[in-house]
Design a protein that fits this description.
Elements: E1 6-10, H1 11-21, H2 35-51, E2 55-59, H3 67-72, E3 81-83, E4 91-92, H4 101-112, E5 115-117, H5 124-137, E6 146-150, E7 165-170, E8 178-181, H6 183-190, H7 195-205, H8 220-230, H9 233-242, H10 249-257, H11 259-269, H12 291-301, H13 304-313
Parallel strand pairs: 1-2, 1-6, 2-5, 6-7
Antiparallel strand pairs: 3-4, 7-8
Helix pairs in contact: 1-2, 2-4, 2-13, 4-12, 7-8, 7-11, 8-9
Length: 322
């Protein structure tokens, strides 16, 4: 499948990977670590160079642990809570030297003119799911292909060859090793034939890193086999309720015991397609929208080489000197 004209970045996933992939000895002139900023900018430059998207969106977490997901499954991301805060779902564990880099990322993206978009009460995954749904709903004559860039397997559920949606999965901490995830890749790696099938597999399998228990005793291979046999999660549950002989007694018992989880898990696992994302300009500018501000940021934070790579990739004139 060719690369799409619309590129959606799972920004936090990428800057976390940059933080752990670039040494923290990479610092600004005042000694402040900027390894996540540098790494993210280098990723963006490489992605724009390699894929030439006409539209680019840095999708952002309005809420890293939305209340509607926690209400359904209280263990959702619970292991990542650094501090409980009344009236919220808690503050996320973030490395101490990463936290002050996030505002710098925001400022640099703004000066470049790269759209940064979130939605109150929703994760970046939901923003991505919503923007994908909007693009797919456009008339075929004007619909763009979509590249979703992430290090998170959760977004495999959006893969859809027919709609022109693929995931560029950052296998390693940088982007030198990227897997192009399409229907064939999912079939080979997970034995499911679509993004929707992957979401059903993820519900059954669970994900300890997200605090999702899954169905005890139903691992990835068994989940894939059940989805293959019955078509989708709804078919598996119908077979459970009908006492289908294709299920072993143990499988049926496990699915019955997990009934409460299975009732709410699909809503937690599946990304939203209707998050409240307003209208915005997602065009990737040919030149930075705030060149003077960008120069100032680059000099202040020691980002000149990385910013220059992004500007060059955007096909703009190199405005940075020294």
């Amino acid at each position: 499948m060719p690369s799409g004209d619309l590129m959606l970045l799972d920004t936090a996933s990428l800057y976390f990977r940059a933080f752990f992939g670039v040494p923290d000895s990479v610092r600004a002139p005042d000694g402040t670590p900027v390894n996540a900023v540098r790494g993210l900018l280098d990723m963006i430059a490489r992605l724009v160079d390699d894929h030439r998207p006409g539209r680019l969106v840095a999708c952002w977490d309005g809420d890293w642990r939305p209340e509607f997901r926690v209400a359904a499954i209280p263990s959702y991301k619970a292991q990542r809570v650094a501090q409980e805060v009344p009236g919220t779902t808690g503050i996320e564990v973030v490395p101490e030297t990463l936290t002050p880099q996030i505002p710098v990322i925001i400022e640099v993206l703004a000066a470049l003119g790269i759209a940064r978009v979130g939605a109150p009460g929703y994760e970046a995954d939901d923003v991505i799911g919503t923007l994908v749904a909007r693009e797919v709903a456009r008339p075929e004559a004007v619909r763009a292909g979509v590249d979703v860039v992430t290090g998170d397997r959760d977004l495999f559920q959006l893969v859809d060859d027919d709609a022109g949606v693929q995931v560029l999965y950052t296998v390693s901490r940088g982007i030198k090793d990227i897997a192009v995830v399409d229907d064939a890749w999912l079939a080979e790696r997970y034995a499911v034939t679509s993004g929707a099938g992957y979401a059903d597999l993820a519900v059954l399998r669970g994900d300890p890193s997200d605090g999702l228990p899954g169905v005890p005793g139903i691992g990835e291979k068994t989940a894939a086999a059940l989805i293959h046999r019955y078509g989708d999660l709804a078919g598996v549950l119908a077979a459970r309720d009908a006492g289908d002989p294709g299920l072993t007694a143990t499988q049926r018992r496990r699915l019955q015991e997990a009934a409460a989880y299975l009732e709410v898990a699909p809503m937690v696992v599946r990304v939203a397609s209707d998050a409240p994302v307003g209208e915005f300009d997602d065009r990737l500018p040919a030149t930075p929208v705030d060149p003077e501000g960008l120069v100032e940021l680059a000099q202040r934070w020691g980002l000149a080489s990385s910013v220059r790579r992004v500007v060059d990739a955007m096909s703009g004139v190199d405005t940075l000197s020294g």
